[in-house]
């Protein structure tokens, strides 16, 4: 297979990423918690739903546009927040993804643990909606400053992630001797030496660190240590309410999994409910999001934005989530495989693949506007 531009599907980008990255870095993207049941089942579960379609509908014009956190978005999908993108593409990291999202007209959400500054990312993606994801530091002053800086830089939405107050048990990482930033030891050295191109990029690029918290003394902890020791495990709905007020704009709670919590999120001041199991990286054997959507949609009503993510590798997966009640869908690994495979061009390819899948399938389904898609065209697989 040649470069990222010639990838036919997301699985091709994954293969390219695997060839480009040292095993420990690839496994950090690709892996999940414990036996990786949630990770696998979230992808496989899409196959248990099958389409019927509308015949003889004029599909010469197809509208794929949606709104995400109240903002216009060219597709029913956008980019989910993921930590430390410079690990996957040492030179450009989040800037590469931001540029690709900007060209595709889709929103970009960045992690608390982003490896480029908010301001540089905003400059890389000037034309699309941008959201910040927040993990809550014990020191609330850090959170307040982060929110204020994000607002000043033009970020319009804030996402509070609530399914990762404790880091999940991702067994590939200790097996590979992996940490962020990577450290050199007998386990990691051979993996790194097997990927000289990546090593050269890493050597020529700034050290990988949470770029928006440069002044914070992390006591030499790696990212898992930061999550487990410097983020606040005492967080409750009261704190979510505080953050929603502090932000004062579109606010999502990410990592919701019950109808009851979806309603509580709205009561706490969230405008958007985000169903997620963190890409199978937290609780293993958690219920795939596609199964939760109908009950959550029924609980919050038709007018509330519900975002869904997890296991999305094809445009058909995006549309199945929409048909089951999601307003829009966030892409995690699909973009990360692209980023690792080819930087900006790789993310562009991932977003192009998804966009053409979505447009083609809407046409085949006889749905000229994605807003018309609902559960009537999707059936649980018989037998
Ligand atoms: C490598 C990696 C890092 C991630 N980092 C974060 C993060 O910092 N904050 C967050 O809210 N979610 C994070 N996520 C979860 C994603 O936002 C998203 O929920 C998940 O990847 C969706 O599943 P998918 O990768 O199968 O599409 C991360 C996911 C991956 C794969």
TrEMBL record:
Keywords: Flavoprotein, FMN, Oxidoreductase. InterPro entries: Aldolase_TIM (IPR013785), Alpha-hydoxy_acid_DH_FMN (IPR012133), FMN-dep_DH (IPR000262), FMN_HAD (IPR037396), FMN_hydac_DH_AS (IPR008259). Signal peptide: none annotated. FMN binds at residues 81-83, 111, 133, 161, 254, 276, 309-313, 332-333. Glyoxylate binds at residues 28, 135, 170, 278, 281. One of its GO terms (molecular function) is FMN binding. Its cofactor is FMN. Pfam families: FMN_dh. It comes from the Bacteria. The active site is at 278 (proton acceptor). Residues 2-383 form the FMN hydroxy acid dehydrogenase domain. Belongs to the FMN-dependent alpha-hydroxy acid dehydrogenase family. This is (S)-2-hydroxy-acid oxidase. The lineage of its organism: Bacteria, Pseudomonadati, Pseudomonadota, Alphaproteobacteria, Hyphomonadales.
């Amino acid at each position: 297979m040649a470069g990222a531009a010639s990838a036919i599907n997301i699985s091709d980008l994954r293969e390219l990423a695997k060839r480009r990255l040292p095993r420990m870095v690839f496994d950090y993207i690709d892996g999940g918690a414990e036996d990786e049941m949630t990770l696998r089942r979230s992808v496989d579960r899409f196959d248990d739903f099958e389409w019927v379609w509308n015949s003889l509908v004029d599909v010469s014009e197809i509208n794929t546009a949606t709104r995400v956190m109240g903002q216009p978005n060219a597709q029913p999908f956008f980019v989910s927040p993921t930590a430390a993108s410079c690990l996957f593409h040492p030179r450009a990291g989040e800037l590469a993804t931001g540029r690709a999202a900007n060209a595709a007209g889709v929103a970009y959400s960045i992690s608390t643990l982003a490896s480029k500054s908010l301001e540089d990312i905003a400059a890389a993606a000037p034309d699309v909606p941008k959201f910040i994801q927040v993990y809550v530091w014990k020191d609330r002053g850090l959170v307040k400053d982060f929110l204020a800086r994000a607002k000043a830089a033009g970020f319009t939405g804030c996402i509070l992630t609530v399914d990762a107050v404790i880091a999940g048990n991702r067994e590939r990482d200790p097996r590979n001797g992996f940490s962020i930033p990577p450290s050199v030891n007998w386990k990691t050295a051979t993996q790194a030496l097997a990927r000289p191109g990546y090593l050269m990029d890493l050597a020529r690029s700034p050290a990988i660190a949470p770029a928006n918290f440069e002044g914070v003394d992390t006591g030499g902890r790696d990212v898992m240590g930061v999550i487990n020791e410097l983020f606040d495990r005492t967080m409750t709905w009261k704190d979510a309410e505080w953050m929603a007020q502090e932000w004062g704009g579109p606010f999502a709670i990410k990592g919701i999994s019950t109808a009851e919590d979806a309603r509580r999120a709205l009561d706490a001041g969230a405008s958007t409910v985000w169903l997620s199991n963190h890409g199978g990286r937290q609780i293993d054997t958690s219920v795939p999001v596609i199964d939760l959507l109908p009950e959550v949609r029924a609980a919050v009503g038709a007018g509330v934005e519900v975002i869904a993510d997890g296991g999305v590798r094809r445009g058909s997966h995006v549309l199945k989530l929409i048909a089951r009640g999601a307003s829009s869908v966030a892409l995690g690994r699909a973009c990360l495989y692209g980023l690792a495979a080819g930087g900006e061009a790789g993310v562009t390819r991932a977003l192009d693949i998804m966009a053409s899948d979505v447009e083609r399938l809407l046409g085949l389904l006889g749905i000229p506007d994605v807003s018309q898609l609902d559960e009537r065209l999707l059936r649980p697989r018989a037998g």
